[in-house]
Amino acid sequence: MDNQWRYQASSDSAAMSAKSPQEGSTWRDFITVTKPGIIRSNLIAAFAGYWLASAWDVQYGRLILTLLGTMLVMASACVFNNYFDRDLDMKMERTRERGLPTGRLKPMTVLIYAIGLGISGLLVLLAFSGILAGLFGILGMFVYVVVYTLWLKRTSTWSTSVGAISGAMPPVIGYVAVTGEVDLGAWLLFAILFLWQPPHFWALGIRRKEEYRAAGFPLLPVVKGTFRTKIQMIPYVALLIPVSILMYVYDYAGIFYLIISTGLSIVWLYLTLKGFKAKDDDAWAKMCFFFSINYLMVSLIVLVLNTTHG
Q1: Within a domain: residue 27?
Q2: Is residue 169 part of a domain?
Q3: CB 187 within 8 A of CB 175
Q4: Number of folded domains in the chain?
Q5: Under a CB-based contact definition with an 8 Å cutoff, are residues 208 and 94 in contact?
Q6: pLDDT tens digits for 128-161?
Q7: How far is CA 67 from each of CA 30, 63, 134, 168, 194, rounded to the nearest angstrom?
Q8: Considering the entire predicted model, what is its pTM?
Q9: Residue 12 in contact with residue 268, Cβ under 8 Å?
Q10: What mean pLDDT, rounded, does the chain reach?
């Protein structure tokens, strides 16, 4: 397996070098390499975590600095991900036109960019959001870059589940920036983002299964098949229901959050189970994927609006 990966990487590197020079990089390439879509959704989660912990007594200056630090740390991790995956990205239709695979961005430039973003973000978190927020920022970067990108993404179907740890850090960072401690509220926020990610990403993986297979990624739908992936999605979606209930029971959120978030979780679970009777797996996976996006956005917005007053 290791020899195969070395051969693929060396072959792809040679292919990249052999490509004709591309047009020069633009500011759009430097923005795209940070994966703005991921940053946007995770900033909403970080905002929700900060707001929940503040219980409407918000220090807006610290909130802005916490979001800035979180954004820079996430951007750094995403740029590192693009840097290390540049050869494999050449094999996938949805990634081959990125700045690195096309040659518009130089690897060393991107590496320096990633390091600069990471250092800046961690300094902002440590200086203005507290040691604990900075430590969770470091943990998120380490899991995403080292554990997920460099190790599990290339070797194991567990990559999605373990990688979800890093994706669950933003709301926790926002929360501990206010509280300075890890309590039940932090764990519940972690649970929401952690449980949401695998079924969300596996729905995309089912739709793009052949692309991931061609690239050599051992994604669950590729290795175990679509049916097994559908089974694996169930516990993650189902566990979102008690998390929503606990948010209300322990007085972190109000009745509107309980009704809306629990209702959305039940609908998502229904759609997931409906997949076993689906005649068109691609259409079903597309429906689940887009529902999962709306689920997260609506749940977090309602959580912010229906946070229990302190």
Answers
A1: no
A2: yes
A3: no
A4: 1
A5: yes
A6: 999 999 999 999 999 999 999 999 999 999 999 9
A7: 20, 6, 12, 15, 19
A8: 0.89
A9: no
A10: 91
Question: What pLDDT, in 10s, does the model give residues 165-176?
Answer: 999 999 999 999
Kindly report the number of other CB atoms within 10 A of residue 78's CB atom.
Answer: 24
Cα separation, 68 vs 40, whole angstroms:
12
CB 103, CB 16: distance < 8 Å: yes
Structure tokens at 89: 């990205």
Residue 253's alpha-carbon distances to 82, 156, 174, 192, 262, in angstroms, are: 37, 37, 16, 14, 12
Domain that holds residue 205: 34-305
Q: Which residue has the tokens 């600069």?
A: 116
Could you tell me the CATH number of the domain that includes residue 80?
Answer: 1.10.357.140
- Name the maximum alpha-carbon separation found in the chain: 62
Residue 247 pLDDT grade (very low, low, confident, very high; cuts 50, 70, 90): very high
Q: Distance (Å, rounded) from C-alpha 191 to C-alpha 171?
A: 10
Is residue 15 situated within a structural domain? Answer: no
